[in-house]
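# step 3/5: fold
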Amino acid sequence: MSRIPIAMPSPGEGQATGTIVGWLKRVGDDVARGDSIAEIETEKTNVEMVASANGTLVEIVHEAGEVPVGDTIAWLEDGA
């Protein structure tokens, strides 16, 4: 099995941090590519972050709050 990092996406041009409002998936949940997994706050609205890979959510590093863009916020395990 390999672990796949989920990084904080850039919420907008020139922004160095993003804010996790909440998680839509929990540790142990199966995740398919394209599934909404977390809600991220931008300057103007909240958007749903989608998974870029299939796997099981095995760890949430940041529950909620401000996180630098590019930091790992969670881990998926692909089962391979």
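# step 4/5: annotate
The domain at 3-77 is CATH 2.40.50.100 (OB fold (Dihydrolipoamide Acetyltransferase, E2P)).
# step 5/5: archive (pending)
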